[in-house]
Design brief:
globular; mainly alpha; 77% helix; 19 helices; 429 residues
Length: 429
């Protein structure tokens, strides 16, 4: 640890000075890369993420998250070992994409609804791509084949479920030491609600959820005007940070490319792909996706000399890894809490590998026989990166379907527990 503290700052200064020299040596290419990153932020990220930032803040203030959390607690606890409010985080993250999951997780940690271990589990599997970007940008815009969205979505969101099941074992060796260091919840809020969400202890799941929402609203206490103003202000700060990180990594990738340093990384990646039996023409996609998810997904769609299933697998890896740009966004959010970044990093790497394998395994059942594309490329569809009200409604509909499915599973879990309790009492009698 002492060596890290001793050499981390000089190494960081050396890297920043080197980037500055490279940007000064190639000013035009750095400017063009910055403009590309700014276009990605303004055309895609800002209009698609900002409404969800504001809406999530309002839902937290009104206690809707606590209401849904109390209903989903019987499902989220046994499966993922997180409170029921994590179900709302997972649904919103799948509907709106990264870094919504990290933002909501940090908010729940600030309100003492989750512990550090629970927060690390939650943020590890609630960082995913949104269906608008997966379908509109990747499947239609980059691959020109909307049909592959079925495989991409199954691989990506199936990987989310598997990562959530794997992360439930995170923190089991550390015991209760990390959890006990968390500050105690405020009286009448978290502890009471969490206790009341257990169907074996308290009947009336809906009544307990309504009480949780009412208690959360009373604890917040802000009028609607003040709540809306603060939601917009905090969302603007976060979306500006997101845009700055996207532009920064686009310029960084361009500077490293101009310097020739990226050639070594490309050679190493090509060797690894060849050793794994994958076409080396996917090197540009993997290398670009390590830094920025949009660049990697676009390179996967434009790769030549590779069969379509392998290109889809590369896109699935890039979408699940998220790119260092997304990692920096999540790290900046987690920096305001005591949640550690390393579990998130390991979960992203595992999610990328699992999604790529799922894409290859699911290609034949979902798309047909063989490794060649079953559907002919559709080149007459032109995707515009602009955001529309139709896309927003589709994303909200997806969110509603996710929440409805989770609530149905939660009700099934509650009903099953009551059935077993009744059978046990009948057997004893």
């Amino acid at each position: 640890m002492s060596l890290y503290r001793r050499y981390s700052l000089p190494l960081l200064i050396l890297i920043l000075v080197s980037l500055f020299v490279l940007m000064a040596a190639y000013p035009q290419s750095s400017l063009n890369a910055g403009l590309r990153g700014l276009a990605i932020w303004w055309d895609v990220l800002f209009p698609s993420l900002f409404p969800f930032f504001v809406i999530s803040e309002l839902l937290l203030g009104f206690g809707i998250v606590h209401f849904i959390g109390a209903l989903l607690d019987p499902l989220m606890q046994p499966l993922f070992r997180v409170p029921g409010c994590g179900g709302f985080v997972a649904a919103v993250s799948c509907a709106s994409g990264y870094p919504i999951g990290a933002k909501l997780t940090a908010k729940l940690w600030e309100q003492r609804w989750i512990t550090r271990i629970e927060g690390e589990r939650l943020v590890a599997f609630t960082t995913s791509s949104d269906p608008i970007f997966l379908i509109g940008a990747v499947s239609v815009g980059f691959f020109h084949q909307p049909e592959i969205a079925l495989v991409l979505g199954a691989a990506h969101y199936g990987g989310v479920l598997l990562i959530g099941l794997l992360m439930r074992f995170h923190g089991t060796r550390s015991g209760d030491s990390d959890i006990s260091r968390q500050p105690a919840p405020a009286s009448g809020s978290t502890s009471d609600v969490k206790t009341s969400t257990s169907p074996a202890r308290q009947p009336g799941q809906l009544r307990q959820a309504l009480y949780a929402m009412h208690a959360a609203r009373l604890e917040d206490g802000r009028p609607f005007g003040e709540l809306l103003r603060q939601a917009i202000a905090s969302s603007l700060r976060l979306i500006i940070v997101v845009g700055g990180l996207v532009v920064f990594f686009c310029v960084t990738l361009e500077a490293l490319t101009n310097s020739g340093l990226m050639s070594g990384l490309r050679m190493l990646t090509a060797s690894l792909l060849t050793a794994c039996g994958l076409p080396p023409t996917l090197t540009e996609s993997i290398v670009g996706g390590i830094f920025e998810v949009t660049l990697g997904a676009q390179a996967a769609g434009e790769a030549t000399g590779a069969a379509l299933p392998f290109k889809v697998a590369a896109a699935a890896f890039v979408l699940s890894w998220g790119g260092l740009s997304v990692h920096a966004q999540v790290a900046s959010i987690l920096n305001m809490t005591n949640l550690r970044y390393m579990p998130f990093l390991l979960a992203r790497a595992a999610h990328g590998v699992i999604s790529a394998l799922l894409a290859l395994l699911l290609w034949r059942p979902l798309m047909g026989q063989g490794s060649s594309p079953v559907f002919h490329p559709i080149y007459d569809i032109i995707w515009s990166p602009g955001f529309s009200s139709t896309m927003l409604l589709q994303s909200l509909l997806f969110l509603a379907c996710m929440l409805t499915g989770m609530l149905a599973l939660s009700c099934l879990s509650v009903g099953t527990s009551h059935l077993f309790a009744w059978l046990k009492r009948t057997y004893r009698q």
